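Ticket #4471: complex job returned nothing on first submit. Input attached below:
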Amino acid sequence: MTSPLIRVDNLSFRYEGSERWALSNVRFDVNEGEVLGIFGRSEAGKTTLCMCMNGLIPHDLEGDLQGSVEVAGQNTKRTEPQDLATIVGIIFQEPESQFIMTAVEDEIAFGMENIGLPPNEIEERLRLVLKLTKLEQYRRKPPRRLSGGQKQRVAIASALALRPKILIMDEPTSELDPIGKNEVLAIAKELNREHNITIILVEHETELAADIIDRGIVLSEGRVKFQGTPSELFGNVELLNREGIFLPEVTEVGYGLSKHGFPITQLPFTFQQGSALLQSLLTKDRNPV
Amino acid sequence: MMEQPQIIVRGLHFRFPDGTEALRGMDLDIRKGEFLAIIGQNGCGKTTLVKQFNGLLRPTEGSVLVEGVDTKKATIAQLSRTVGYVFQNPDHQIFSTTVFDEIAFGLRNLNFPQTDISDRVKRAMASMRLEGKEKDNPLFLSKGERQRVAVASILAMSPRVLVLDEPTTGQDWSSIVTLMNLVQKLNQESEQTVIVITHNMHVVARWARRVVVMTEGRIILDASPAETFTNTQVLTRAFISAPQATRLASELGFGTGILTVHQLVDRILQTRSPKAAQSRKGQSCRRQWSVHLDA
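Support reply: We reran it on our side without changes. The output follows.
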């Protein structure tokens, strides 16, 4: 078997000046081409974990880091951030806070110029990432004039231009309206399915995440409380409630019906699954127990 | 005769100095004690509209009356005693080093007497379940708690209208439930008018009693949540998708009126196993299982 693309091994981290461990003994692997969802309350350590995977921790944000994080075989503690930038891209909640240029094309080119790519290579990659994020027509527009979803796509394009194997998306949709949310998750799905980009997704809106993740982990006070497939995750209703995680409504419907004696062995977590389940329950001739 | 609406919007147009027309002719009445949600795409004018209520912005054309006062003739200080506006990001609003000072800030600004201030801070803290945190630095509170501090600092001034601008952004579900339940309690017990701008349709379905849908500076629908979520034409125009429970209900042909998972489950039980449903007549199925924190 090939080795995992990301290996987080017994990772603990405490911010400088803080008594509290933001992460404690976190351990998980991510294989190439997977979409991993990270769930948990605010302050559970999700963002800290993301920043450990792209090297922002401990390079830019200092503190006490124990254990290790390896991405594509590189230990993030011992690898320079600019070298990690071509392996791991990251986008945050507020895309605007990352923008510094006055045109979309310059914003996207900025990172490539920083790693010293020649102009023809920059142009070629620019065209490709504009196409991937469906931003061709906004190339010369100022990022500030775009909609929320388009801005977030500029952030994704900037990250993709460095050809990362991994894209970390830390609450990428929380500032966006419903269309913006769908735009961003559709791009994420396409990048994963068509271009084999490994994705780490932090998302409070589990109904959106449920459609795209291959695996999920739940963090609570810096510890991994759960890891497993989406059906294991959404099947564990008690855990989700305890950790303050929104239960997709289709899952809740399935759970409610099963409590009333309907024979449901597998709780649905996508709308299609929920719809199929109800259709079959309501057409079946058998009465619940 | 019915009491006059608390907020009366007539023929409202608003243009920003750069010429952008953000509101293009709106009429709206809001009555005391309502729980109203305003929904629609980013940039459709939701925030621009509510900022007219406390005078942060004033009509270019038309009028806004707040408890009978024309906002063009009142100061922000006067209006903010009636309409409290909680910003989208609590961190844009919080700047004191203790929770007490943060909540007292607005009161001091409005020259409330010292004895009254501590009393009001205490009450606002209790209503947002922040007791015992007077001396804490807001910076070290959780995101959900900081949000409640932001709301408490507005409530301390006893505004009769509370406006929450996207209170769910970046909050986890348990914090959303806590905040919305506290606001609902104020709404039910003291007729606090609540206006919430949100992209979260679960919040609309569970807490709002009236929904205003906006696109491009105009109101395209003003209806109950149940009517809103079954008006597919309006939902499509506003790029909104109804909660999963409502969508499942309409797929199953249950018609209108199902907004929550509990309602859907009850309805399925009636359809699927009439016997079981009848033996529990008069008793809600709701208490038989409890999934959500608010159940």
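Chain A touches chain B at residues 40-43, 93, 147-148, 171, 174-181, 204, 207, 237, 241, 244-250, 252-253, 255-257, 259-262, 271, 274-275, 278-279, 281-282, 287-288 (CB under 8 Å). Closing as resolved unless it happens again.
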